[in-house]
Amino acid sequence: MSTTYDVIILGGGVAGMTSAIYAARANLRVLILDENACGGLVNWTKVIENMPSYTSIGGMELVERIQEQVEALGVDIEEAACIDSIDLTGEEKIIEADDTIYKAKAVILATGRKPVPLEVAGECENVHFCAICDGAAYKGKKVLVVGGGNSGFDESIALLDQGIEELLLVEKMNRFFAAQSTQDELTSHANATILHSTEVTAVSCDEKLESVTLRNIATNETIEYPCDGIFVFMGQQPGTEIFQEQLSLDSDGYIETDELMATSLAGVFAAGDVRPKKYRQITTAMADGTVAALEAERYIRSLAG
Ligand SMILES: Cc1cc2nc3c(=O)[nH]c(=O)nc-3n(C[C@H](O)[C@H](O)[C@H](O)COP(=O)(O)OP(=O)(O)OC[C@H]3O[C@@H](n4cnc5c(N)ncnc54)[C@H](O)[C@@H]3O)c2cc1C
Question: Is Oxidoreductase among the key words of this record (predicted)?
């Protein structure tokens, strides 16, 4: 099966959905392909308090509202899409996903970032990257949190709010990096313990997680910590492996663009967290998405005339 669009947007986070709104309003035929559900990182955010026009809004509610607007404009959305291959080099852009070949005049790459995985955990099913999404399953149980930055502490507090019985947070550096107020809030919980200079060296997980081995980096002592789940917050990295042969990426793997979101390939634009930038926020991702769609429209019109 083959399907043709004016613009295909890879990634339906806030950058991709904003692009879709602008492109659809320009009467372009638009498809969003997302390997998960639309909304991206915003789905993981409990409360957003810096989105203009909302004093406070839940992440999932914000995503629902944006997605409603996207769908009302007639944008096609394929979620849980498995991308088999992608060819951005020709005038016609070709993406194969789930046995369908999609073709477009322009592509907007808005694939954001993915959590850095805990390699020693392998394919263990009890490893998670989002407290709001997966924390409820561990009510009354023991969890390990890996990462002592703001996300590790914030998500630990969110886990305890969901009724976690015992929580241990470990950080491999010799100090924590979260805001002091957040550190104070977590350490005031009777069920939470925090350890720096501690790394996870092994995970015992067969059918389900049994325990982890923790090593004190200063003393080299190891302990076995039995737990039911692991939540990992070791930072984010761009998921750009599928483009790396075709596009110019920076040394950290982010897609290089000019200020109009043009990449190194004609007709290919990038928007949001997948670009190198200092501030990664919802509003900055939306701004990129706007510019990328307006430039994609200009590019498509230039092909016609
Ligand atoms: C815990 C946390 C809290 C935050 N809180 C705030 C806040 O309060 N306010 C604020 O302004 N910002 C906040 N941010 C930052 C903000 O969420 C991001 O900057 C913004 O959501 C990025 O949007 P994006 O569309 O660029 O990327 P993402 O949200 O990462 O979306 C990318 C999408 O692409 C999809 N995708 C990835 N790879 C592929 C592929 N190969 N094929 C198809 N689809 C793919 C993903 O499934 C995802 O849906 C927070 C971030 C985190 C991690």
Answer: yes
